[in-house]
Design brief:
The chain is 76% helix and 3% strand. By secondary structure, the chain is mainly alpha-helical. The protein has one domain. The chain starts with a helix and ends with a strand.
């Protein structure tokens, strides 16, 4: 339990930091293109954490080699998810991107599980919780309507552009959920959060470098001091939060991490309004509040469901032990019956 609480605390720190990241990235896209930003951001992440692995966790290299399939998978999903995410940030406001990205994650965990992609820490989803996850998907649909009809913080946005931005963010959320599950599997075989972050950005950095080399004009126009400044900023707003998120993931299961991350849009909406980057939108406030309420309900339902399952398991274990001993305290044999999916026991004499 203490481990889970620490993981949730780390994920909450990640949620706050990613709000700063998204608002800053939206501002930066007014000056640089997608691949220039990706090269600086992920190149910095790869160098920082890669160096950390070499210095502090060299013994992990053997584990990474043995799990090379996971390394390839985590790189491929990171490439697709983050480039899609960056693309959506160029099209719509940060809060809308964050909402669509985070909102699809809990349902995506279930979807990937049905396809066979799950971690050992996977827990079952109750009926009420599943309905709430469908509610989150409905909120994303409502968000798409708000953005495409000019009721978001960008009232003059072209409807097609708005829908494309929400679609990219949603797709990114689905793919990053797969990356989250793969990372959890890597944790389960002994690979640390530092090692995962140290290798997961290799492919996206290589692809971004290739695209920038093809059209180097924008990044070549930047003075060396400006590039160094951006590297420092990304160290604070991207690299640090990524580690918080990865460390939090290691201490929780994918569903809990997805639900905690779901509160990100609230923080992002508040920050973008305070900075003046995006005009305040009452419709966005309503849809974000609705989203937060459903997310909180999902958390409460998850806690109640987990507690119920734990109590049932403890009760079942006690009575199985009694049955194994052959008699209860009164000396009567036991018969097993099923009632509402729980194991119950009664005296055979009754």
């Amino acid at each position: 339990m203490e481990q889970t609480r620490a993981g949730i605390a780390l994920l909450l720190g990640f949620v706050a930091a990613q709000a700063v990241r998204d608002v800053y990235l939206r501002h930066l896209f007014g000056h640089l293109g997608l691949f220039e930003v990706a090269l600086i951001a992920f190149g910095m992440a790869m160098l920082s954490f890669g160096l950390g692995v070499v210095v502090f966790a060299r013994h992990q290299v053997r584990l990474l080699r043995a799990s090379w399939r996971y390394v390839v998978a985590v790189n491929a999903t990171t490439l697709v998810a983050w480039l899609s995410y960056f693309g959506s940030l160029r099209l719509v406001e940060p809060a809308a991107v964050n909402l669509a990205f985070s909102g699809v994650a809990p349902a995506a965990v279930t979807g990937w599980s049905l396809l066979g992609l799950r971690s050992a820490a996977r827990s079952k989803t109750g009926r009420t919780e599943a309905l709430l996850h469908w509610g989150l998907l409905a909120v994303i649909g409502l968000l798409a309507i708000i953005v495409s009809t000019g009721r978001s913080g960008f009232p003059q946005l072209n409807p097609t552009t708005g829908l494309a931005g929400i679609a990219l963010a949603t797709f990114s959320g689905i793919v990053i959920t797969a990356e989250t599950i793969i990372s959890k599997r890597m944790n389960e075989v002994g690979i640390s959060a530092l090692s995962i972050v140290g290798v997961r950005f290799s492919l996206v950095t290589i692809v971004a470098a290739g695209m920038v080399a093809h059209e180097p004009a924008k990044i070549a126009a930047l003075p060396a001091a400006a590039i160094a400044q951006q590297c420092l900023v990304f160290l604070l707003v991207l690299v640090g939060p990524i580690y918080l998120g990865q460390a939090g993931l290691k201490l929780t299961n994918p569903l809990i991490s997805s639900v905690v991350n779901a509160i990100g849009p609230v923080t992002t909406l508040a920050l973008q309004a305070l900075t003046g980057l995006v005009a305040f939108s009452p419709a966005m406030l309503v849809v974000t509040a609705l989203y937060a309420i459903i997310s909180l309900a999902a958390v409460v339902t998850r806690v109640a469901w987990s507690s119920s399952i734990a109590d049932t398991a403890d009760e079942s274990r006690v009575f199985r032990n009694q049955l194994r001993n052959g008699v209860r305290a009164a000396g009567k044999p036991l018969l097993q019956i099923k009632h509402r999916n729980r194991i119950r026991w009664r005296d055979s004499a009754k």
